[in-house]
Specification:
It is a lipid-anchor; GPI-anchor. It is found in: Cell membrane. With 400 residues, the protein is of the alpha+beta class. Helices cover 29% and strands 19% of the residues. It contains 11 helices and 12 strands. The strands form 2 sheets. Strands 3-2-1-12-11-10-9-8 form an 8-stranded antiparallel beta sheet. A hairpin with a 5-residue loop joins strand 2 and strand 3. The longest helix has 18 residues. It starts with a helix and ends in a 39-residue tail after the last helix.
Length: 400
């Protein structure tokens, strides 16, 4: 069909520039990532440029089916994305429009300069929540003690440190009550900015009182308050990084998405990073990938009955967690573990929110859920978390 159209149509419209318009549009949008905050802004700019280009060719392309299809398609896309007809447009010269404070545009510039196809950047996810449960940049899942201050991330662009405190008296269970983030100075995009959150004080500003870094017009780094005192987002456009911080109950959770090449930009002395290398073996609560579950009514070695202080049984904890999470993945089992350990129902909301953050920030949908191996699911050989409700390793003597 295309060859027939070309024979009957293209020869009559050799000066029609619709193909160039389409090629430019693809060039403007190929590097964009729908998960990033500025996607709609940049996509609308590209659509307006596409529309301007087609308008300029309206006379010479009159009667060209490809041209008319493009015009209709532009209109549909602009309606879907709520793009205004008036506004900035993408330039046909990428070198002239390169924004050094927009990480998503770096690959396009490198491709343009090297004249070679550059693959889109790879993004990684790390999250910390609950008692505390850690999902590393490698999608390994661990439950750790890590009492006191520990570095989650420490590279050339960003430092994130968390402080964990005991949850239950006499127990090694801990949870996060303080988060400190340092966005390091970067070119003209931002001065060094420090953010700090503690329990019952989740500010929507950096410690210096500002809500953004660098030129306020470019918004290369800024904080967005989603729920006052309970949920904020930090968007560092210049390093393609997004951070979510929440307070649920008395404790904090954190989720972060960052480009792989920046995650790995650190010195040998910075190798103690929980998000990169996981928790030290001496700090692990899970045993060889299995998460022990304390259970009421079972017998400990020696014949003593196990009675967790939480007030939950395995059945009631499972029911409570199932109200929020229908899929029995690692977040569900973490919820059960936290309820049996602490008795604090806020940990149910923490596990549920942690899963929502994964769905919002993790780049690979097929890796959102990590399932117990015995359940037939999984995300491949990198999955390190294998839990079964039948695996009831009683650790009440050593842990509770």
């Amino acid at each position: 069909l295309l060859s027939i159209l070309c024979l009957g149509d293209c020869q009559l419209h050799t000066s029609c520039g619709i193909q160039k318009c389409t090629t430019d549009f693809v060039s403007f949008t190929s590097h964009l990532n729908a998960a990033l905050e500025d996607f709609d802004l940049e996509f609308c700019k590209a659509l307006r440029a596409y529309s301007v280009c087609t308008y300029r060719n309206s006379k010479v392309c009159r009667g060209n089916l490809v041209y008319h299809s493009a015009v209709l398609g532009i209109g549909d896309l602009m309606s879907q994305r709520n793009c205004t007809k008036d506004g900035p447009t993408s330039s046909t010269n990428p070198e002239m429009t390169h924004d050094p404070c927009n990480y998503s545009g770096h690959a396009e510039v490198r491709e343009h300069q090297g004249r070679e196809k550059t693959p889109p950047p790879t993004y990684l996810f790390c999250g910390l929540f609950g008692d505390p449960h850690l999902r590393t940049f490698k999608d390994h899942f661990q439950t750790c003690k890590v009492e006191g201050a520990w570095p989650l991330i420490d590279n050339n662009y960003l430092s994130v440190q968390v402080t964990n405190v005991p949850v239950v008296p006499g127990s090694s269970a801990t949870a996060t009550n303080k988060i400190t983030i340092i966005f390091k100075s970067y070119q003209d995009c931002t001065d060094q900015k420090v953010y700090q959150a503690v329990t019952d004080d989740l500010p929507a500003a950096f410690v210096d009182g500002t809500t953004s870094g660098g030129d306020g017009n470019t918004r290369s780094l800024h904080i967005v308050e989603k729920v006052s005192g309970k949920y904020i987002e930090m968007h560092a456009r210049y390093i393609g990084t997004t951070v979510y911080i929440r307070q649920l109950g008395h404790y904090l959770t954190l989720a972060i998405r960052m480009p792989q090449e920046l995650v790995m930009a650190y010195e040998e002395s910075q190798d103690l990073q929980l998000c990169v290398n996981g928790c030290p073996s001496s700090q692990r609560i899970d045993q060889s990938g299995h998460l022990p579950l304390p259970v009421v009514g079972k017998l400990l070695p020696g014949g003593a009955a196990a009675h967790p202080r939480s007030g939950y049984t395995l059945e009631t904890a499972t029911t409570k967690c199932h109200e929020k999470m229908l899929v029995k993945d690692i977040y569900f089992y973490s919820c059960v573990f936290d309820l049996l350990t602490t008795g604090d129902a806020n940990f149910t909301a923490a596990a549920h929110s942690a899963l929502q953050d994964v769905e919002a920030l993790h780049p690979s949908k097929e890796h959102w859920h990590i399932f117990p191996r015995s359940g037939g699911g999984g995300v491949g050989r990198d999955s390190k978390f294998f839990v079964s409700l039948g695996f009831l390793c009683l650790i009440l003597v050593a842990y509770l």
